[in-house]
């Protein structure tokens, strides 16, 4: 669950409406059919670590889970490349404010219009229970005003790559 058992949500800034908005696209992926809204597309100029060839992404709801706190960060260039992410506001209990602001500054992102995407991993334990972790060491910083994202690595040992979540 998100910090303090509250669902954290932020959205990409909606572009000014001058003409009829472009329709949402349907994209068949390994997670099922995703609805991709033009306003939820974003660019990752260097791609996620290990996927530098992929720079065009979109945030989409998890199919059949409309109230889920998780989202899917889906590549628009390869339907097999996607990540389960947990959108997290800048003021959370996991990532220090100073570290978040330093990450924003390093990419010239405005911290007031930025947030974080924590890459999540879901695994079943030996009892078949789903266990979730998030990567606090290398979150994705998201500039919602400009629809840009960059992955950052924090050098502090305070952040782990497998921080457990309570589901």
UniProtKB/TrEMBL annotation:
Keyword Cytoplasm tagged: yes
Gene3D superfamilies linked: BH3618-like
Low complexity composition-biased segments: 13-22
Annotated stretches, region: Disordered: 1-22
Keyword Phosphoprotein: no
Keywords: Bacterial flagellum biogenesis, Cytoplasm, Translation regulation
Pfam families the UniProt entry points to: FliW (PF02623)
Protein name: Flagellar assembly factor FliW
Provenance organism: Rhodovibrio sodomensis
Organism phylogeny: Bacteria, Pseudomonadati, Pseudomonadota, Alphaproteobacteria, Rhodospirillales
């Amino acid at each position: 669950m998100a910090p303090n058992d509250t669902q954290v949500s932020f959205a990409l800034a909606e572009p000014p409406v001058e003409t009829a908005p472009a329709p949402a696209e349907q994209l068949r992926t390994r997670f099922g059919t995703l609805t991709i809204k033009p306003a939820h597309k974003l660019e990752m100029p260097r791609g996620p670590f290990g996927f530098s060839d992929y720079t065009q992404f979109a945030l989409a709801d998890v199919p059949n889970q409309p109230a889920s706190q998780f989202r899917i960060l889906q590549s628009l260039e390869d339907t097999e490349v996607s990540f389960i992410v947990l959108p997290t506001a800048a003021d959370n209990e996991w990532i220090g404010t100073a570290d978040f602001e330093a990450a924003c500054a390093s990419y010239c992102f405005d911290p007031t219009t930025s947030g974080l995407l924590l890459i999540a991993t879901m695994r079943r334990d030996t009892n078949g229970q789903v266990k979730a972790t998030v990567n606090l060491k290398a979150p994705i910083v998201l500039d919602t005003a400009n629809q840009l994202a960059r992955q950052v690595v924090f050098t502090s040992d305070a952040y782990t790559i497998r921080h457990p979540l309570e589901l």
